[in-house]
Amino acid sequence: MTQPSLTDVDWSKIPAPEDDGAAVHLVGMAIPSLSLRATDDTTVDLSELKGRTVVFGYPRTGEPGKIGLTDDWDMIPGARGCTTQACSFRDLFSELKAAGAKQVFGLSTQSNAYQTEMAARLHLPFPVLSDEKLELTDALNLPTMDVADLTLIKRLALIIDNGTISHVFYPVFPPDRNAGDVLEWLKANPV
């Protein structure tokens, strides 16, 4: 299936994910010490970051004009919208920082090479972290879905304060509103 547009989506035609309780255990968890490769050619250990960090996770971004991962990708609840989610964090990046986010990161199980191309193409002002080996995903028992023999992170956003998860947005729908919801929460819950 070709995707004519990765950002123009009629969300009323896309099934919303249901809250399956798979993220309820995350609030209060300490982030384990793991190094993840970032699109800015660094490695990041989220457990060592001081201040407030926002990490939004997603299944996988698509490539314009390329065949989707599966023919029914858009009909998998929570699958469609990774590009729009990333772009919404891009568009609100300055406001998120002004509202107290010292760091903002994207997170997926895609390779660093793919993420680096995507981050450049979308002009993302923040790094995207690769959990290709599922180290963070497994250590935190993040919600996942298996599609086309791949384990993908279900869409969520984490607020991490000094290495501990203080708030979780899950499930996230529609994806393009996630950054706005995070911004509202940051404003209502200053550091």
From TrEMBL:
Keywords: Antioxidant, Disulfide bond, Oxidoreductase, Peroxidase, Redox-active center. Residues 25-191 form the Thioredoxin domain. It comes from the Bacteria. Gene3D superfamilies: Glutaredoxin (3.40.30.10). The keyword Protease does not apply. It holds the Pfam family Redoxin. This is Peroxiredoxin. It comes from Tardiphaga alba.
